[in-house]
Design goal:
By secondary structure, the chain is an alpha+beta fold. Helix content is 32%, strand content 20%. Pfam families: ATG8.
Amino acid sequence: HNLLHLFSATRKNEVCSIRSKFPNKLPVIVERYIREKTLPLLDKTKFLVPFELTLGQFLCLLRNKIELDSSQSLFLLVADKTMSCMSSSMGDVYSRYRDADGFLYITYASQEMFGAPQPAARPPC
């Protein structure tokens, strides 16, 4: 339990440092879905994202980083919820779903994880 608390405190300090250096950027951690088999791991998991960037634009950015071809789907899960509103700003998503440690956690997968409808899975990049 102490180790978990220490880890959380370290992340909180990291967020404070990031937010003071980059007040107009949001700290986001992106991880591959635990049972994902086809998509590669990202070479980095921490991102600083502008408030006004939309979730759809962020999805496009991730597609480019993962180097997906246009026929492959990419789904995002924010704070364990499937996101369908790709026009939401990252600032809005962050304010609603950020973790207690200050990071916004996003999971990616090649297919729907929980069967919720997601019509905006592939916005035009």
